[in-house]
Specification:
With 323 residues, the chain is an alpha+beta fold. The protein is built from five helices and 22 strands. 31% of the residues are buried.
C-alpha cells in the first residue's frame, strides 16, 4: 500500500469517533497534539480539533510534512503555501489535504483528507464535523465521511509522502529520511557524499564556515575534497572537507596555499626562505630552474640555495643539488 493509502486506511479507522462520548477531558486528537507541541491547553480544552485530527494521522504514520503539526487551518495553509505544496483543487487526489471556506471570505474554516475525487465533488474523511448537513460542519465533534462541492474548497495541499529521499519545494532542496525526520543545522551523509543543511533543513551550496573551518558545497550540494577550481582560483580540501592552508603535499609534490586557501604560483617567501613553483603550482625541488634571465638552484625541500652550489646527476640522470 502507498503512504497515501496508509493514511486513508488510518483515517477510515477513526470514523465514528465522537468527542462527546470521549471519557477523558478534551479530545483524543487534542491530547496527542498537546504532546507534540508541549502545550497542555490543547489536550484538555476541547478546542475544535479538525486540524489536530489531520496532525494526528500524519504523526501516527511517522509522515513528516512542513505544514504539520498544526491546530489552526489558516496557519496550515500558509505553511503549505510557503513550502510550494498547494495544487489545483480540481486535480485533488486521494491522500491530499483539503481546506474549506464555508463563508467565501477567503479564510480557511475546516480541513479534511481527500478520499476520492468524484469529478464534480470530493469525498472526504474529516474530524470534528457532523454526519449530515443539519449539524455544525466544522465543530460537530465527529469523525465522518463526507461529500463536499468544489465551491466550498479553499485550497488543496499535496503532501510529499516520500518514504525517504530528496524533496524540492519553493524554498529549496531538503532530504526526508525514511522515518520522516530531516537534518537541520548540520551534516548528513547521503549515498556516500556529505551534505550540509541549514537551520530550516534546506540543503546548502557554496562556501560554508563551520566552527572556524571553511568548506565548499558544489552545485549539487555535495561537500568537495581534493583540488577544486573555484572562481578562477585553486583550493585544496582535506579528506574531511575542510579547506587547507599553508603547505600541502599531494601525490609526492608540495604546494603552498595562502591564509585564504588560494594556491600560490611563482615565487613564494615563507619563513625567510624562497620557493618557486612550476606551472601547476608544485614547488620545484632538487633542481636548477630558470626564472626570467636567471638560473636558480633548489634543495630537496624546495627552498632556494644561496652561496656555492654543487649539482650532480645519478645513474638515472636525476639531478641532485648539494649546496
Amino acid at each position: 500500500m502507498s503512504r497515501a493509502g496508509d493514511l486513508l486506511a488510518a483515517a477510515n479507522a477513526e470514523i465514528g469517533y465522537n468527542r462527546f462520548d470521549d471519557p477523558l477531558a478534551g479530545t483524543k486528537y487534542g491530547r496527542r497534539y498537546a504532546q507534540l507541541v508541549g502545550n497542555a491547553y490543547y489536550g484538555t480544552s476541547g478546542v475544535p480539533y479538525c486540524a489536530m485530527f489531520v496532525s494526528y494521522l500524519f504523526d501516527k504514520l511517522g509522515i513528516a510534512e512542513p505544514f504539520l503539526p498544526e491546530a489552526y487551518c489558516p496557519y496550515m495553509k500558509n505553511k503549505a503555501r510557503q513550502a510550494g505544496m498547494l495544487v489545483d483543487k480540481y486535480q485533488a487526489r486521494p491522500g491530499d489535504v483539503v481546506l474549506f471556506d464555508w463563508g467565501g471570505d477567503g479564510v480557511c474554516d475546516h480541513v479534511g483528507i481527500v478520499e476520492k475525487n468524484c469529478g464534480n465533488y470530493l469525498q472526504t474523511i474529516e474530524g470534528n464535523t457532523s454526519v449530515g448537513t443539519s449539524g455544525s460542519q466544522s465543530n460537530g465533534g465527529r469523525v465522518a465521511r463526507r461529500t463536499r462541492s468544489f465551491t466550498s474548497v479553499n485550497c488543496v495541499i499535496r503532501p510529499n509522502y516520500a518514504d525517504g529521499g530528496w524533496i524540492q519545494d519553493s524554498v529549496g532542496w531538503w532530504y526526508k529520511n525514511a522515518d520522516g525526520s530531516y537534518t537541520k543545522d548540520g551534516w548528513q551523509a547521503i549515498d556516500g557524499k556529505w551534505y550540509f543543511f541549514d537551520e530550516r533543513g534546506y540543503m546548502y551550496r557554496g562556501w560554508l564556515q563551520r566552527y572556524g573551518y571553511w568548506y565548499y558545497l558544489d552545485g549539487s550540494g555535495a561537500m568537495v575534497t581534493g583540488w577544486q577550481a573555484i572562481s578562477g582560483k585553486w583550493y585544496y580540501f582535506n579528506k574531511n572537507g575542510d579547506m587547507a592552508t599553508g603547505w600541502v603535499r599531494d601525490e609526492g609534490k608540495w604546494y603552498y596555499l595562502d591564509t585564504n586557501g588560494d594556491m600560490k604560483v611563482g615565487w613564494i617567501l615563507d619563513n625567510g626562505k624562497w620557493y618557486l613553483t612550476d606551472g601547476s603550482g608544485a614547488i620545484k625541488t632538487n633542481t636548477i630552474a630558470i626564472s626570467g634571465d636567471n638560473a636558480y638552484a633548489f634543495r630537496p625541500d624546495g627552498s632556494m640555495v644561496t652561496g656555492d652550489v654543487m649539482a650532480s646527476a645519478d645513474e638515472n640522470g636525476v639531478l641532485h643539488i648539494k649546496p
